[in-house]
Design a protein that fits this description.
The structure holds 2 protein chains of 2 kinds. Helix content of chain A is about 50%, strand content about 10%. Chain A is mostly helical. Chain A has one domain: Orthogonal Bundle (Cytochrome-c3 Hydrogenase, chain B), CATH 1.10.645.10. In chain A, the strands form 2 sheets. In chain A, strands 1-2-3 form a 3-stranded antiparallel sheet. Chain A has a 3-stranded antiparallel sheet with strand order 4-5-6. The mean pLDDT of chain A is about 85. By secondary structure, chain B is an all-alpha fold. Classes of the chains: A mainly alpha, B mainly alpha. Chains A and B meet through helix 4, helix 5, helix 7 and helix 14 of A and helix 7, helix 10, helix 12 and helix 13 of B.
Amino acid sequence: MFKSEEMEINLGPQHPSTHGVLRVKLRLDGETVVKCTPVIGYLHRGLEKICENKTYFQGQVWTDRMDYVAAISNNLGWVEGVEKLFGIETPRRARYIRTMLTEMNRIASHLLWLATHALDIGAMTVFLYAFRERELLLDLFEAFCGARLTTTAFRIGGLREDLPPGFVKQARAFQAIFPERLEEYETLLSENRIWKKRTVGVARINAEDCIALGVTGPVLRAAGVPYDIRKAFPSAAYAEMDFEIPTRPEADTYARYLVRLAEMRQSHRIIQQCLDGLPEGPVMAKIPKILKSEVNEVYHAIEAPKGELGYYFVGEKGGVNPYRMHVRAPSFVNLQALPKMIEGRLLADVIAAIGTLDVVLGEIDR
Amino acid sequence: MPPPMNLLQTIVMGLIQIVAVLIVVFIMVPLLTFAERKVIGYAQVRLGATRTASGTRGFTASLNRGMWAMGKVPVLSFFRGLPVFVADAVKLITKEDIIPAKADRAVFTLAPILSVVAAFGVFSAIAYYPGVMFYMPKSWPLIGGLPFNGAIADVNVGLLFILGLASVGVYGIVLGAWASNSKYPLLGGLRSAAQIVSYEVPLTLSLLPAVILAGTLNFKDMSVILSTGQGMSPLAVIPLFIGFFIYLTCGFAETNRVPFDLPEAETELVAGFHTEYSGMKFGFFYLAEYANMIVVSCLATAFFFGGYYLLPFGLQRIIPASVPFLGHPSFLFFMAKVSLLLFVFIWVRATLPRYRYDQLMDVGWKYLIPLSLVNLFIAAVIRYAF
């Protein structure tokens, strides 16, 4: 008479809270998750293969489409990887501008994360507040390169153009209002009892598991490991910047929330330093019209908003395109932590966990 | 005293009153959705809802331009966008009504009807005004000179009737979820059954202090006694005050509103129990939810806010009945208080995240029920000791 059955349910790929086309197969016992299997590949475009058939200059355009909320970070990884492969030195001013834009992009990406994460948990208002500030950043990107999302902001060897007139003023205006806006989000969430109930102790993953799974970025830092590529292997102008790596020991959703908020503050600091110390000079190095590689291979990683974004290039002799290009996408690696985080927990926690991992499907499927 | 009515007159007067109340409710529900858009729009700095402003010409337009110039969002734009609710209604009525192939057709159709009937039926016992509101004009045939009462039915166990009928509404949700024969609605329906059944207990318990203190279950008399404080100790404020907060919390849960909107948690269960519903069947659930919000606000007004008197908690005796308008009960006071509570509903939606299922149960069983029992005890002590 009292027969209990496990129910299999599909979360996605067209589910409102899977942030794209992620499909998660869940086996439920009542509302408890017994087993969770992420299914990916709905957005696969064969990006790595495409890049092997494009020149080093053309390939960069495709990186915009990976993590489409942090296109500038993707661009940075690509151009610096190629520069490393060919031994190109970029001018100091270009490196400063790259750093600044990348940090702005980090804030934009974290704002989008905050917006959707809060919306998933039911706090609708934060969503629109965060988008309001993200809009200001997208306006800055638009002023710089004409595009808001798919920026293709940098060029191999530097920048195509210097900052447009008025950009610094616009950026300073953003810098002036952003800290108080951050406090506004915090008043809505940080001490909100329901928010804390939904996030404290939820989707916990400890440092050992993070390292074993290769999880990087804010998820790893919220588990207490101060690993940040901007400090560990500084590129662009990060070596000249003064900033801290925020960490938390709790390793839960709330800790990740705090870490990302603190990261936005640090990014704000870096942007301020870039604006204040912006050196004069050219923004483009002298590079040949056609880049022909030797037999060579290079791995270059940068700290993207989601974690370690690595580009692996193999050049062949005389080739104008990479022989092999591979992307170590942070969202792809971080998603592996999902089953570990939520098995044995409730259905509502799955939503919180997907939100807190901050995955972008364009990057997972490539 | 009006002359006693014959059967035909009774029926006709009853129908007139029912239609009048239904019209008011049917206007209030779309207005409420409109208000929700506007209030949430302002709370969340939504550009659309706050700025679908006035036209470019005319008096209001020039005023609005002035406000923009001062750096303020024009208040006059507040009323623009009203046609949206007409469009809403037209859309819901004309949309294709899809019944999934595997659904149980009869139950699937019955469920929204059950929900909406339960929600609207409750209005029959709510008193908006003590006694007679006005008399029909003498010149009218058949019903000339007959009284138009402040309540459709003056039931002597009004509260029981209301609570009983309101709890039928949950069957609409559960049956609808079950009949959809789909997984997300099923989860939503189960959540909702558990939630509404467990919050019904503290909800009822939180209303009981008012019953004990007033000594009646009649809706009309209760409002009068609770606001004028006839024969009530001044200490009665304490249990009523606590009861109000318990009631309001449970009211949010009963109407499936944020932070207790688990049955339709759109980021978890797509749309919860009404995932498979479309067209006017969905419209019925929608109507029922908003009608329930109005019911909850009406009850809170009558029990804790002094109903159709100006002041609650027996404070009305400060104002003697000789004072014009303020000293007398008025339909306007009632509506104003209901609107205030409805605003609170919307305000909370813009502010709070959603509880998780198990946490919701914790709040209900571990905190609200013990608290309301203690409150009931306090009320009983005050009633008999003071």
